[in-house]
Specification:
about 260 residues, alpha/beta, 9-stranded mixed beta sheet, two-stranded antiparallel ribbon, 11 strands, globular
Length: about 260
């Protein structure tokens, strides 16, 4: 592709710009694994709880609320572009909350994917519900999917997942805390995922030197884990301030 990376080091390239434009320029059928944490479209001028304080839910223009039809069109478009980049035996993971994940699941099937698992990530320390009109939101869903090709097998590191789960088959409910404060030492992102979550995903579904893509990089957790685990990595992020955080985190990651 013609666009130069915003940041590059051995086996890692970070691009600044619109994912829709950059995804079109990457090599087709070149990626082994995709992790995507797309916008939740939650910025609707409401309030939420953060660190015990009432704060605005607005995260930025990239997260502005859309109608269902607009949201679903957006999801089908980026998933279609990602599918073109995946190897036939590659897989994709997409995380989200109830605000967007049902559109994601529907869009995956519409675009010719087969859903492999519906992981429930249970947060052990969620923020309280300020409205007191429904149950406390304490989970996110992470969908794992492959191309719907009958004779092509995807990679799954079953034995390692069993090993880290006391030699028992790992189930589709994963429990753990929200992102630690220490993982935000270079700056904060409103939807930053914890390292342990990405370590499990990447270990489960890729090998050393596999090519991993994150089209909504945020503050770089996927890139940090790929460096730790010796994966090749491509990250795309629209906001330069978040890319700066990702760059610092990756630069300071020890192998």
């Amino acid at each position: 592709m013609n666009k130069q990376p915003y940041y590059s080091e051995e086996n890692i390239d970070l691009y600044c710009g619109d994912s829709f434009n950059i995804l079109k320029k990457l090599e087709e059928k070149s990626v082994d694994l995709i992790f995507a944490d797309p916008p939740y479209f939650l910025s609707s001028n409401g309030i939420t709880n953060s660190g015990g304080k009432m704060v605005s839910v607005n995260k930025g223009d990239w997260d502005t609320s859309l109608t269902f039809k607009e949201k679903h069109k957006y999801n089908r478009k980026w998933l279609r572009l990602c599918k073109n980049l995946m190897k036939d035996d590659g897989t994709i993971w997409v995380s989200g909350t109830l605000h967007n994940i049902y559109s994601i699941g529907f869009a995956l099937e519409e675009e010719g994917f087969k859903i492999l698992n519906n992981i429930t990530w249970q947060k052990t320390n969620p923020p309280p519900n300020l409205g007191c009109r429904n149950f406390t939101h304490s989970t996110e869903t992470v969908i794992w999917a492959k191309k719907d090709l009958k004779k092509v097998k995807h990679y799954f590191n079953y034995e390692e997942m069993k090993k880290v789960n006391n030699n028992k088959q790992m189930k589709d409910v994963w429990s753990g805390s929200l992102t630690k404060k220490s993982e935000k030492s270079y700056g904060k992102h409103p939807t930053q995922k914890p390292l342990y979550l990405l370590r499990r995903i990447i270990t489960a579904s890729s090998k050393i030197d596999s090519i991993v893509l994150d089209p909504f990089l945020g503050s770089g957790t996927t890139g940090v884990v790929c460096k730790e685990l010796n994966r090749k990595f491509i990250g795309i992020e629209l906001e330069e301030n978040y890319l700066e955080i990702a760059k610092k985190r990756i630069e300071n990651t020890e192998i």
